[in-house]
Inverse folding.
């Protein structure tokens, strides 16, 4: 088995363990208290006790509990994102391979010219449950690559809009266009 297949199998196994570890009480809280549609909780989310660094998480027996969500890109499991529903503005990636939740919707938006909605955190993305909603996971995500060709993006909150605007302006170099008056027009 090659390294890529081993990596994907390991992530899949970790997610299966997390899915089995999501208790009925935790699942009910995700639906009732946090507003995630039941269909997204049943079999599509997990829970784990974790240890964290600034950007990453690892399973840790006795660690703090977190929701675990698979990140699927182009039909393949690429990463697992973990977050605490009580503090959803902070999340951690398992491997750092993912840039966006809901990335497959970006292709649809480009092809059909439909707007995407950028959600500020994984909990908001899970609650929204719409195929054209995305959540940018990596602070250094390639915005030009991800959102280039999208005709319109909206944000779920003013804070998300400010963050996205700042990131987009930083990613797009300023282009000054001048008329060359020193040459005769052809």
């Amino acid at each position: 088995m090659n390294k890529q297949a081993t990596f994907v199998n390991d992530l899949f196994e970790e997610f299966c363990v997390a899915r089995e570890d999501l208790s009925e009480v935790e699942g009910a809280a995700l639906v009732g208290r946090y507003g995630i549609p039941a269909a997204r909780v049943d079999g599509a989310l997990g829970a784990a006790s974790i240890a964290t660094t600034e950007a990453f998480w690892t399973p840790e027996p006795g660690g703090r509990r977190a929701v675990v969500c698979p990140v699927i890109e182009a039909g393949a499991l690429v990463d697992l994102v973990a977050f605490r529903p009580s503090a959803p503005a902070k999340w951690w990636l398992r491997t750092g391979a993912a840039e966006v939740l809901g990335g497959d919707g970006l292709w649809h938006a480009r092809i059909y010219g439909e707007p995407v909605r950028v959600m500020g955190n994984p909990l908001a993305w899970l609650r929204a449950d719409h195929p054209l909603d995305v959540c940018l996971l990596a602070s250094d995500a390639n915005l030009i690559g991800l959102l280039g060709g999208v005709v319109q993006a909206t944000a779920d909150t003013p804070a998300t809009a400010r963050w996205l605007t700042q990131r987009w302006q930083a990613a797009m170099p300023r282009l000054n266009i001048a008329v060359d008056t020193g040459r005769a027009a052809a």
About this structure: Residues 1-6 have pLDDT under 50 and may be disordered. Residues 2 and 110 are 34 Å apart (CA to CA). Residues 3-21 form the longest helix (19 residues). The two ends are 63 Å apart (CA to CA).
